Amino acid sequence: MTESKLTNATFPWDLGGQGKVRDDLTIEQDGARVAVLEFLTVMANKSSVEKLVPLIDVDPTLTFANMVCGAIGGTAAEFSALADAEFAITVDGVLTNIIGLDLTGLDTVLDTPGYMTCGNIGGTLAEFAAAGANCQFGLTVDGVLMNITADFSGLDSVADTAGYLTCGAIGAALPAWAAVNDAQFGITLDGQAEIQVGPIDYSGLDTEADTAGFFTCGVNGDIIANWDGLADASFSIVVNGVAFDTGQMNLTTCVTFGDVVNVINFFLEGVATIEYSWNTNIFRFVSNTTGETSTVAAPGAPAGGTDISGAAWLNAPGGAATAGAGGEGTGQTIQDITNAALVADGAAAFCYYNGDAFVFVSQTRGETSEVADLTAGGVGTDVSGAGFFNGLAGANVQGAGGENLGQNISDTINAAAVGRFTCHFNGDAFVFTSRTAGELSTVSDLVAGLAGADVSGAGFLNGLAGVNVQGTGGEGLYESISEIINAQAAGRFTVDFDGDAFVFYSPTPGLPGGVITVLTAVVAGGGTDISGAGFLNGLVGIGTVTAATGSDGTDRPAGLFMSKEITAAALVSGDVDNQVLLVGSDKMIDEDMIVFEGGLSFASIVVATGRTIREELEQMGIYPRKSINSQQIQPI
Predict the structure, then answer these.
(1) Number of folded domains in the chain?
(2) Is the residue at 444 inside a domain?
(3) Which of 120, 404, 460, 475 has the most other CB atoms within 10 Å of its CB?
């Protein structure tokens, strides 16, 4: 790098003499990248802005030690009830007791935005579209009135629908389908190339329809007097392989066999149902399940009470059991197997059975959504035709175009809002929401637009008398706790809340200096300990410590440079030529001409080193001074 001399006239503030500068800056040093961090701004003669930037030699592996607590353990009410919270932590080898934290002033209400919900939408898509390109309405958001112009002329007035094909009546019974293990058919979707679906194995189909198991008793004597004198009637029964005892039933109030059935059904508790035929005088028990495992055995003797399973009552000995039959039903199981095959072969469609025929539906929507007639399979058993799906000459319904009503209008309004608010459709009405949050976040009712077609009222957006909800204030409970802790920590460590837990950081990058521990209770403390599970949740076994990496001391500023219009990307990439760099010397900077970003001052701490900004400048031989006038400089 070359060096040149700089005279006072070169800079619009007094440097107190000549200083060395580099006019050819390449940000490479001994083959290692030099990171550049901007932390203050110099205003030259109050008319143009110059950048004063420390160049920092940084170890690329340099990180800060941190400790992540367990998930937050306290509620808003529990934290805000404390005026004497305390905990301890050891950072960089120094134990720090944080005591007397007053959390009673916490805002326990999280920030929320204000919003306004209109009345139910008052216009159809066609009516919005007909309103044209100059639709207007007024809206006040966070106290600022704005007039919104939206172009609805391009709205599609037809809601999206999917194209589909309804086949002819199904052409084969289940046994015929179950005999096929290499089924195939062709399907064409949305005008694209034909997709061959298969081979499909239908051999696992259950060819029987589901039925429930039941037990039919023998003929009953039809003598109600045999029943209405029993206060302890009882029997046992095995349903689906599980024994059940009714317990003792009081039949003394029964007048008819219908009454008997009602009482017994109550005591069966749903495991089975008893029926009675008046024509045949026969009781029948039916299982509550269907399929091959659905069974009902003959009623038998109970554990206690009067057994009514015998010939004088239910007459189980004269009956017979019938097991349930398996099967899932024709269409449903074919539907499931076929849909799995459609997915496997990349066909964006699904099918369902409507009770008579199969319907194939495209998974897209709009005017290009369609399902053509099925075509023959290329290999295996063709199931496209009359003997199976019967889809060679089905009924085709093309999809209709258009976007969802509310969504499309919302998109148009949001584009016109350009980030000042958002609008969405909740299925019934439009909701306008502020982009800010807090107690000052508000959205008014709509008002008429200044010109054009007014869409604020009942025939369209229907927002003249909406429901207004003001935003709630606060910075968020846990974020505020971080701020309170950081204020007392005074740079010895920092803490953030990541949405689930608190994270504590050492201020010292690299090793060996940057170390941190889990939280502990304050020894002999007098306040409320918040280190544990009920609050910060950072004790040993819960808190997770991540060690620092990199070499300590490599982040010390190496100099300052001044220039106009140099981007951070250019600095980091080293693409900076023919610019001036002020290096460490005994020169002075006029303190009156320095404005610090972010509210910093000469007393602010540089986190990387722990020194003040003034100390950092003085380390490099640059001494801020106080100007008395433009010709005279004296020490502060």
Answers:
(1) 5
(2) yes
(3) 460
pLDDT at res. 35: 28
Note the helical H segments in 165-301: 174-178, 257-268
pLDDT > 70: percent of the chain = 72
Distances (CA, A) of 347 to 146, 186, 392, 602: 48, 10, 18, 68
Spacing of C-alpha 421 from chain mean position: 21
CA-CA distance, 136 to 454, in Å (whole number)?
Answer: 5
> How far is it, in rounded angstroms, from Cα 389 to Cα 183?
11
Comparing 628 with 429, which gets the higher pLDDT? 429
What CATH number has the domain bearing residue 541?
3.30.70
Residues 486 and 418 in one domain: no
Which of 322, 354, 381 is at the close of a domain? 322
Alpha-carbon distance values, 591 to 210, 462, 598, 602, 634 (Å): 92, 59, 17, 9, 11
| 289, pLDDT greater than 70 | yes
Task: Let me know if residue 390 belongs to a domain.
Answer: yes
Residues 310 and 239 in one domain: yes
Burial tier of 214 (Cβ tally within 10 Å: 0-12, 13-18, 19+): buried
pLDDT digits (tens, 9 = 90+) for 73-132: 887 778 888 999 999 999 988 999 999 998 887 766 667 888 999 999 988 888 888 888
Pair 186, 249 in one domain: no
Look at residues 349, 364, 397 and tell me which one is the last residue of a structural domain. Answer: 397
Cis? peptide before 512, omega within 30° of 0: yes
Count other C-beta atoms under 10 Å from residue 568's C-beta.
Answer: 12
Residue 241 per-residue DSSP state: T
Residues 541 and 489 in one domain: yes
The mean pLDDT of 224-228, rounded to a whole number, is 88
Q: How far apart are CA 236 and CA 243, in angstroms?
A: 7
- Are residues 316 and 234 located together in one domain of the fold? yes
Q: What is the pTM of this model?
A: 0.35
Do 610 and 628 have their domain in common?
A: yes
Q: How far is CA 573 from CA 258, 563, 576, 583, in A?
A: 92, 16, 8, 20
Residue 30 scores a pLDDT above 80: no
CA 308 to CA 264: how far, in whole Å?
Answer: 11
Rounded CA gap, 450 and 340, in Å?
Answer: 57
Q: Residue 613 is encoded by which pair of tokens?
A: 């900004």
In a domain, 150, yes or no: yes
| d(C-alpha 479, C-alpha 496), whole Å | 7
Separation of alpha carbons 394 and 399, rounded Å: 16
Alpha-carbon distance of 538 to 72, in angstroms, equals 9
Question: Per-residue confidence at 15, pLDDT binned at 50, 70, 90?
Answer: very low
Provide mean pLDDT across the span 16-27. 28
553 assigned to some structural domain = no
Least reliable range by pLDDT among 12-21, 81-90, 484-493: 12-21
Residues 287 and 148 in one domain: no
CB 487 within 8 A of CB 480: no
**Rounded Cα–Cα distance for residues 616 and 562 (Å):** 16
CA-closest candidate to residue 607, choices 544, 514, 512: 514
Q: What pLDDT digit, counting tens, does each position of 570-596 carry?
A: 444 444 444 444 433 333 333 443 434
Task: Report the run of H or E that residue 616 belongs to, with start and end.
Answer: helix 613-619
Q: What angle do CA 573, 575, 576 make, to 5 degrees?
A: 125
E strand spans, 153-194: 164-169, 183-187
Query: What is the helix (H) or strand (E) element at residue 582, kind and residue range?
Result: none
Q: By residue range, what is the domain housing residue 271?
A: 214-322
Nearest to 243, CA basis, from 305, 298, 325, 308: 298
Q: Are residues 189 and 338 part of one domain?
A: yes
